[in-house]
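Got a spare moment? Tell me how you read both lines of this record:
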Amino acid sequence: MKTYHALLTLAVTLSLTLGSQLSLTAQNKKPKTWEEQKAERLKPVTNEEKEKIAKSIPNQLTSATEKKRKLLIFYRCEGFVHPAISTANYAIPEMGKKTGSFTADVSDDYSVFTQDNLKQYDAILFNSTTHLKFPDPQQRAAILDFIKAGKGIVGIHAAGDCFHNWKEGAALMGGLFSGHPWTAGGTWAFRLDEPKHVLNQAFNGKGFWHQDEIYQYQPTTFAGPENLRIIVSLDMSKKIVSEKLADPKYANHNKAFKPGKREVPVTWLREYGKGRLFYTNFGHNKQTYWSPTVMQHYLDGLQYAFGDLPADATPSAKANKVTPALAPEKP
């Protein structure tokens, strides 16, 4: 019996010691580098996915252009890494090839952001970039000078969770992430704030349903309708959409918002200096990139950013009021 108790005591001691060591190891484990996260999270696009993407890309441009444009796609993340980044990194250049309208370079290296290097591009696309650091202040200046001088910036999905330590960058993009009660597994209703806007022509003047993850934006950083032309929003008239505001998982985020009616913008554009911004929150789910409707929306936004598709960017608060197009009652 004494031997049994001795063995039991030894086993408990070893278990506690091992548990403490594992806990200490977990506490001392350094955060993964971007390169490690990239290798772990960003998987190659499969041949089946490539076929779906090819079918979704529009056959022609909304606005023909004689000049072939050049796009810089940047996808580095210092925060959460979205697996769909790989899908966009493939799909967007393929869009340029199929339409013959642009070529694209894809990079995750901060060194691309110099005034001399950016001269070769007509637009920069931030592909679900999160919490970017920009170690050299001149890199930030190069981006602002780029758009102010007449070039374009495009933001996809987590580009709205990007410039937390850069006030001017957050203002440029239009807002910063504050939770996503509308999660990636849900199918949500969307309204067209501007049914006849040229950058909404993909939706044929009708609200719609789409499966994706949708952000809300910090009230203190959101540029609002006084500065942005908001053209797509969540359709809060649908219970499945509005009831998510009561989700206790997002209680801390929701404390930042005033009680009452909540508007949740999804796509907007703006003029910035002599340049143009197009931002859309669509793009968390990789299947978004084989939605012909959303891909047309992306292409039109890109053409606007390039300066090839004229679009009214008058801030919504100053534009003529129109009746939004709500989504159907059911998907």
About this structure: The chain has a mean pLDDT of 92. The beta strands are 69-74, 102-107, 123-127, 152-156, 187-192, 208-211, 229-234, 265-272, 275-280. The domain at 31-318 is CATH 3.40.50.880 (Rossmann fold). Residues 50 and 91 are 8 Å apart (CA to CA).
